[in-house]
Amino acid sequence: MQELFRQNRKMGRPPLRWLVRKNGLPFASFLFCPDKTHKTAVLRNRSKRILRELVRKHIPVLPVGYDCALLVQVGFAKLSKEDREALFLSALKQFP
Questions:
Q1: Taking all residues of the chain, what is their mean pLDDT, rounded to a whole number?
Q2: Mind listing the GO molecular function terms for this protein (predicted)?
Q3: Beta-strand runs (E) in 23-85
Q4: What is the pLDDT of residues 59-82, one digit of tens each?
């Protein structure tokens, strides 16, 4: 995973950013990373739950063969469900 943070392609805009890197495998792997603006574990866990649900919902359209890190700021969890999904999909359209 350290290679993902060293050699990556950045997509999206705050409060949701994607870091992607080819892994050469027949599946995609995901890492959910709330940043330091999340002051408590409750906020970090909520953001991760939201991200996992978005990935599960859109797994058929996600490309395989990539390592992906989804970086979120605390403002992401405060957005409405529709806004979060729109932000997720807009970043997904930038996928290589």
A1: 92
A2: ribonuclease P activity; tRNA binding
A3: 29-34, 66-72
A4: 999 989 999 999 999 999 999 999
Selected from 1.10.443.10, 3.40.50.450, 3.40.50.720, 3.30.230.10, the CATH number assigned to the domain covering 1-93 reads 3.30.230.10
Residue 20: count other Cβ atoms within 10 Å of its Cβ: 21
Work out the number of other CB atoms within 10 angstroms of the CB of residue 84.
20
E strands, 1-96, are 9-13, 16-22, 29-34, 66-72
Cα 85 from Cα 81, distance rounded (Å)? 6
Per cent of the chain over pLDDT 90 is: 76
Helix axes 81-93, 41-57, angle to 10 degrees: 60
Average pLDDT for 27-38: 93
Domains of the chain, by residue range, sit at 1-93
What pTM does this model have? 0.89
